Amino acid sequence: MTKTSLFMGLALLCSSLSFGQYHEPKKIDFEISEPYKVVDAQSKSYFQLDDQVFSIKIDKKTAIIQRFDVKTMKETNRIELEMPKSYSLETIKKIGDEYYVFYSIYDKGRKSEQLFCRAVDFEAGKYNGSEKLLVTTRGKIAGASMGTQHLAGGMFSVMSFGVTDKFDFYQSADKSKLLVQYRMVPTVKNDSKSFDKIGLHVFDTDLKEIWGEVQRMPYTEKKMNIIDYAIDNDANAYIMSTVFDDNSTRTTKKGSKDEPNYHIEMLKRTTAGKRLEQSTPSLDDKFISSVWLYETSDDKMVIAGFYNNTDSRGDAEGIFYAKLKKDGTTYDQQTHAIPLEVLNQYESKRTRKKNTKKEDKGESEFYKLKLRKLQFMEDGSIVMIGEQNYVVQHTTTNSRGGSSTYYTYHYNDMLVSKIDPTGNLAWMTKLPKSQVGRAGLGSMSFRHHYDAGYHYLLFIDNEKNMDLPFDEAPDTYSDGRDGNLTAYLVDDSNGEMQKETILDMRDAKGVRLYQFQPSKILKISETEFIFEAYKKQKEDVMVKISLKD
């Protein structure tokens, strides 16, 4: 990539902000509850209501609601509720003032998928009313076919197989509208002849349907790749996709290395009309490596993500951000390259040398960077958080000529960038991390919270990385092994970073913690977080993290 003097100046500024100055570390302490009997379940979700934390744990035929006191972390109540027969759990969400369990049931006789929901009264420990039918399809819908490991006494048992994630759920920025989306199973298996049929149903906070229908996409599956959905406060639904410019599936124009053979296309279904409105946002012929469609709190639709100037799939040379007009055209578009100085932070000498050579050719990039979160700040600025994420296939051959294959899942460095209200790059910070596992997400990746001027990114780290020099790559944490719960604290005003170890998973005040997941960390106050972990002997504990000045 070509860097202008402006970008070089920004790079040096970012470098000095990230490296040169640190605030006094905030004190991070934790408490651990008395053990209580474990609940084995495939799905575990956590919510806070006033001074209580509730968990709902769903497995097979039952849903168990547990109540905990926030201050003491003691379990104060446990109720068991019955789940319907032959259901597939879809999600648990707060809609309006109610918490709902969404589940689907396939009607074999009618060959129809049905989406139901049921309100849960956590405080009373019961369902609030009867189940409600939201969607009925004509035919099967697509989902993810996957095996599921069941827990028994804290240990994994045999796997069962089924279809999951059949329905996806999107809420508007003000939480007043809910979009339920699904994809019908294609009747034609040839992608060059098959047109996706996408179900779109929009509901209000009382889960009354505003509109709903199945839309046939304007292009074949071969030509079109849907990448995101969104719903706005006015109940308009959006579908963002990439569309190839010709009948091939080449990502570059024939005979070109730096001209995309596809464009971004926006489909919009308004509450007024049933036809999809088509528009083509302009992104200056960038190759899109990761992108989100999002509604801001001031009713604007935005596109944001990472781009590349050449066809290097999944890699990022910079960040982009653009607003959308009602006709789908973009305005206030901004692109910011990732400086070489940022790319080379926390890398080995070999990688730094490789990046520098690529820079001379205009090809340096952040490998396999995925957009994970957009944080819209009160002053109109935006913080983008990306994470390096990829899967590697490993095939081994034995002495008899046979082979076996396994996959490793990698969750590595994070890139945090802030765009100020005028569209300029305020700062950019690379946060080193190296995680690998063989069972999917597991205990890897991170959890982000923003409070009182700081971005907190919590994750499990290798204990050797606490005092990591700027010119060295981090040691790797292996999923399921011992590690430290760690936090990066990034100052929102200038990108300054500090790193704190919160606890050692092997010895959290005498307790060894298992089955931790960053996604299960629940914020319970401006400076407190809570999560549940398994301690063996068929017992769980609650852990409360406190951030203090």
Largest sheet: 6 strands, mixed
Helix amount, in percent? under 10%
Mean pLDDT: 88
Structural class comes to mainly beta
What is the helix tally? 3
End-to-end gap: 42 Å
Q: What's the number of extended β-strand segments?
A: 38
Outline type: globular
Uncertain parts = 1-23, 145-162
* Share of β-strand residues: over 45%
Characterization of the model:
- Helices cover 6% and strands 53% of the residues.
- Strands 26, 27, 28, 29, 30 and 33 form a six-stranded mixed beta sheet that branches.
- With 549 residues, it is mainly beta.
- The protein is globular.
List keywords for this structure.
single chain; 549 residues; 38 strands
Quick structural summary:
By secondary structure, the chain is mainly beta. Helices cover 6% and strands 53% of the residues.
Architecture blueprint of SSEs:
Blueprint: H1 5-19, E1 27-32, E2 36-37, E3 43-49, E4 52-59, E5 62-69, E6 75-82, E7 87-95, E8 98-107, E9 112-121, E10 126-127, E11 132-136, E12 144-152, E13 155-164, E14 168-171, E15 178-183, E16 195-203, E17 209-220, E18 224-231, E19 237-244, E20 262-269, E21 277-279, E22 287-295, E23 301-308, E24 318-324, E25 330-337, H2 340-343, H3 349-360, E26 369-376, E27 382-397, E28 403-419, E29 425-431, E30 435-437, E31 447-451, E32 454-461, E33 477-478, E34 484-491, E35 497-504, E36 522-525, E37 528-536, E38 539-548
Parallel strand pairs: 30-33
Antiparallel strand pairs: 1-38, 2-38, 3-4, 4-5, 5-6, 7-8, 8-9, 9-10, 9-11, 12-13, 14-15, 15-16, 16-17, 18-19, 19-20, 20-21, 22-23, 23-24, 24-25, 26-27, 27-28, 28-29, 28-30, 31-32, 32-34, 34-35, 36-37, 37-38
